[in-house]
Amino acid sequence: MQFPAGYLDHLKQAPGFDVESFQSAHSDKVPVSVRIHPRKPAFKTENLEQVKWCKEGFYLPQRPDFTLDPIFHAGAYYVQEASSMSIQKALEDQFGSERNLRILDLCAAPGGKSTLLASWLNGNGLLVANEVIKPRASILKENLDRWGFTNVVVSNNDPRQFGKLEGFFDVIVVDAPCSGSGMFRKDPEAMKHWSEDAVAHCSARQERILEDVWPALKPGGLLLYSTCSYSESEDEQISQWIAEDLEAEILKSVSLDEIPEIIKTSGGYRFYPNKTKGEGYYLSILRKLEEGEDFEERLKLKNMPLPDALGDLLEAPDEYHMYETHLGQILFPKASIEGLASIMKHLHVLKVGTLAGELKGKSFVPDHELAMSLVLDVTVPRLELSKEEALRFLKKEALPNRFGSQGWHLMQFEGLSLGWGNVLPNRINNGLPKSWRILKDIGV
Ligand code: SAM
């Protein structure tokens, strides 16, 4: 297959991209798959290979003439590319058996995801299937008519118009218009329209669509964002943009995580034709943050339990949260946490609260910021140094152990902490950061 100029180079850096097997998969036969209707059981599935990520999905050994099959017209099955059936697992993982949900399928024609969503709701809740392009909306309606569920609305609107239905939907599916590289094997004609400019245009349109529809998703609601493009600017970068600018948390799907052929990335799941049996696809699962939730989730500051070894060092361990940040594990007072999200979003921060230290194997190595902080308990072991020892410590020299005890101790002078020393049987290793040390000759 002759790919467009610059195409393989463009994908070189994409997560999980393996140029040789990718190219060779494009000479393979395109798998044919169908998804059966759970309530119109006429399609025979014996001896058919099941799609790993959708219990109603099956591969056919060859492509029959569906037009000549009456049960196709009766809605017994829908012909759907296999990778895109993975939204079923994503939904099951998030909602278990809960089905009383309002779902919007925003870019729905011809109806692959919508018929899957209708099957999954199985008559419960509400499905709004929307398509902005009128003739395509008619095809969508016909496919949903054939699928037969009554809890379905089909609409023909621009995404902007959904903004007025504020917080209405529990789930929004945005199977976005994209540059379509994932479909080149199935539809080589589509290659004619591919260019880097087209990718950039799609990426901007994807953001516009998502921004327009975002108000309609209720806080805490689920967004399934997908494309059939391999370009990071339409995939992971859009997920990142949703997480940061629209305020959402990128979720994992336990079931999809278990399927080794699916590539897991920072934004979600990639399906490559050389790895999974299906066409190219990207799926990202996101949860809209709730009011006031932004600190922990959006900045990926994961509130974590204080390790016992740290709790024992603090005067009032209950007053602090511990967070994993880009700086390391920090302690921050619970009472001052409000507003910290905005600070961290807009500023380039060098310090947030107090760096606590890290667990190395079973032992906790305390950070220098902790030694200098006011949060430590009086019971923390400490050694009072002479002035000469204190200056040697501040030059970052190892000191002889004239004290006898062992382990991490505060090295203090006149009752004030200078830093940590790791006391060994015959010497004290100096925990002062290199950049803090006195460089001047101090005459000791
Ligand atoms: N979800 C469909 C399915 O599973 O069968 C496929 C959807 S297709 C990838 C993307 C859809 O987005 C197309 O039907 C296209 O008409 C629609 N679309 C194009 N431009 C749009 C826009 N600006 N806003 C919303 N939808 C758009």
Description of the molecule:
The structure is a single chain. With 444 residues, the protein is an alpha+beta fold. It folds into three domains: 7-288, Vaccinia Virus protein VP39 (Rossmann fold, 3-Layer(aba) Sandwich), CATH 3.40.50; 298-379, no CATH class; 381-444, Roll (Archaeosine Trna-guanine Transglycosylase, Chain: A, domain 4). The chain has helices spanning 7-11, 19-25, 70-73, 87-95, 112-121, 134-147, 196-213, 236-247, 254-257, 294-298, 308-311, 340-346, 368-372, 387-394, and strands spanning 32-36, 49-50, 57-60, 77-79, 102-105, 126-130, 152-155, 169-175, 217-227, 248-251, 263-264, 269-271, 281-288, 302-304, 320-325, 328-333, 354-355, 357-360, 363-366, 382-384, 399-400, 407-413, 416-423, 427-430. The strands form five sheets. Strands 5, 6, 7, 8, 9, 10, 11, 12 and 13 form a nine-stranded mixed β-sheet that branches. A five-stranded mixed β-sheet has the order 20-22-23-24-21. Strands 2-3-1-4 form a four-stranded antiparallel β-sheet, covered by helices on one side. It is elongated. The protein starts with 6 loop residues before the first helix and ends in a 14-residue tail after the last strand. The mean pLDDT is 92. Bound molecules: S-adenosylmethionine (SAM).
